[in-house]
């Protein structure tokens, strides 16, 4: 978490912004949530997750290593991860056709605005103009609410 916190501090110092807008794809969304849990939301104006397994993925049960174990449905780390939607403007962009997050509904986050993008697989979300437009629209909306945020 220290490298991410350090990078956020550096961006704030370089830009003069008071807060950042965070985005994370897949486990990156979980990392952003872990950052917010550990460091608080004083430096964040909003969060957008893309294909993030908020409630885990059954596919993780065949994956090796700590990260795969953390993404298994019902994992204690996931259960204890604070929900940023309670204190921060949060959008979860997900695909009902995600081929990594199973079931696909596990990419939705309780309390957040959940936005489906049909017809895309997990990795295809990274290259989709529709996803890029949804992300930019969310950031524009969040930035309007928090006039001193910088996109990271």
TrEMBL record:
Pfam families in the cross-refs: PGAP1
Keyword Lyase (UniProt): no
Keywords: Hydrolase
Gene3D superfamilies membership: alpha/beta hydrolase
Domain GPI inositol-deacylase PGAP1-like alpha/beta: 14-60
EC supergroup of this enzyme: hydrolase
Keyword Disulfide bond included in the entry's annotation: no
Its EC number(s): 3.1.1.3
GO MF annotations in UniProt: triacylglycerol lipase activity
PANTHER family linked to this entry: ALPHA/BETA-HYDROLASES SUPERFAMILY PROTEIN, GPI INOSITOL-DEACYLASE
Protein name: Lipase A
Species this chain originates from: Candidatus Accumulibacter vicinus
Name of the coding gene: estA
